[in-house]
Amino acid sequence: MSGHSKWITIKHKKALVDAKRGNMFTKMAMLITVAVKKGGGVGDVNNNFSLRLAVEKAKMVNMPKENITRAIEKGLGKGEAGEIEEILLEGYGPGGVALVIETMSDNHNRTVAEIKNILEKQEGSLGEPGSVLFQFERVGRVGYTGKLSEEQSLELIDLGVKEFEEDQEGGEMDTGIDEIKEVMKYLSDQGLAEVAGEVVYKPKTINKLADSEKVRKLLELLLEHDDVQEVYTNVE
Question: What is the mean pLDDT of the chain?
């Protein structure tokens, strides 16, 4: 399965997350705040599915409950600071690797300028809207811990699961965006643990000629930026 999954990243790179916990908490707070606003100002995870996904991600990096509460209150207009907006940037990395960069910021111009600077210093460039996005498709991704039976796997296909990978610890699957909620509920009802979902940009084709070390360095620099939520690329 290609693309980048927050579930896998958190699962297998926890040490890196712990070392930059302050940075991660900042990202999660922005994600929660925007989820409240996108959900029509609803601060209840039971009535705002986007907020539920955001809070689950925050819990996976051990974000304190009080931090989550403050982020929700900010989304409800009870906090301070400027308006946060989602900014989707497209660009290229070393060797023409395609990049889709999800950011959240209270200063549009500053964020764009800083991301552009990172890209240019790493043999990349910022692209125009639409210059890269056509190389990706928007899909739902659900991860979990545990083991599925063959019967359960078949039932998940009936629910709309398109791709599926599982190892000894757990697995992840791609599905339609509209099916994320139903798939997550099914997994939870079946007793699977750490069920988490998100909407991702999945590359339609993989660039196998790119310098993976240069790309890895660029991805790390981008993800270290406080405003960057996620980076998707067409390198496996």
Answer: 86
Buried b / exposed e across 189-201, counting CB within 10 Å, b at 16+?
Answer: eeebebbbbbebb
Residue 225 domain flag:
no
User: Does the residue 34 lie in any domain?
Assistant: yes
- Measured in residues, the chain has a length of 236
- Strand residue runs (E) in the chain: 85-92, 98-105, 125-126, 136-145, 161-166, 170-175, 193-203, 228-233
Separation between Cα atoms, residue 17 and residue 223, nearest integer Å = 11
pLDDT tens string 182-210: 999 999 999 988 888 889 999 999 888 77
Percentage above 70 pLDDT, the chain: 89
Q: Is residue 49 a part of any domain in this protein?
A: yes
Q: Give dist(CA 3, CA 138) in Å, integer.
A: 11
What is the phi-psi region of residue 139: left when phi exceeds 0, alpha when psi lies from -120 to 50, beta otherwise? beta
Q: Which of 16-30, 56-70, 117-131, 213-227 is the least confident region? A: 16-30
pTM over 0.85: no
Q: How far apart are alpha carbons 166 and 145 in whole angstroms?
A: 9
* Boundaries of domain holding 56: 6-75
